[in-house]
């Protein structure tokens, strides 16, 4: 927004000085501080809610920290958005997006990602392994077509608010208890038959699981997969997890790391891998959350949870306590 004549004189002076010529004949204006009104501030927020307003020939400002693009019928994430390195919130709700590019994980400052009401069927492992592990705090995946989330999803350990309502989820990640900063969880109107055992490790402010296909639990009909005697793999896996021995692909073969990542936790807090007793029991959601939205229209705040027992002794002790409570 400079004065055109002054700018031409300044550029002419630079050219002559570069050539080593005299510049005394050029009249330059006196330098004066620019007024605040004359300085154009970097644009940090942009909201687009109509397809006709969507920029086709111009780039998004690189200074953006908040970008909302809704109701534009986007079938995919525009790669120009993924160059916005300062972006803190990206709202792509109410579009037709079916798949997320792994490069979203390169947005190192991204703390809020809103994907409400799209056509998503998967959430990729690549995103779970990206820099989002250290930045993402709010994630809205509601009103999509998700049936499951990968085990690696629980590596997004900075998550505080997670919305999964109105999908087709048949299970939650079985290591969900690793999300120790999670405070708000909603997964209403899905197809969950039960919750994973790790769910009882959560410490929530609010939980909403209304309208799922929760099964009626029966602790007297367990699935028994005990191995007697236990295999060497089972013994080693239990010892590694129980003693908190560090492991990784730099120490063990990849398939053994996958086995260790898939260990279950008994109610006695000890680990088990392939030798266990599996049973579904009721969990009062008030044990994991300060505020609980009713699970059904009958006023229940209980939900079935899948539990594991590492031995017949642990299962017998649980049955004794269960029978004493019901007397």
Strand order within the widest beta sheet: 1-2-3-4-5-6-7-8-13
Radius of gyration: 28 Å
Say what oligomer this is. Answer: single chain
SS field, number of helical segments: 6
* Average pLDDT score: 90
Describe it.
- The chain has 327 residues and is α/β, with parallel strands linked by helices.
- It has three domains: 1-34, no CATH class; 45-191, Leucine-rich repeat, LRR (right-handed beta-alpha superhelix); 223-277 and 312-326, no CATH class.
- It is 17% helix and 17% strand.
- The protein contains six helices and 14 strands.
- The chain has helices at residues 4-19, 125-128, 132-135, 232-242, 254-261, 312-325, and strands at residues 45-48, 66-69, 89-91, 112-114, 138-140, 161-163, 184-186, 204-208, 223-225, 264-265, 271-272, 276-284, 289-293, 302-309.
- It has a nine-stranded parallel sheet, with no helix packed on it.
- A hairpin with a 5-residue loop joins strand 10 and strand 11 (271-272).
- It starts with a helix and ends with a helix.
- One of its GO terms (cellular component) is cytoplasm.
- It comes from Callorhinchus milii (Ghost shark).
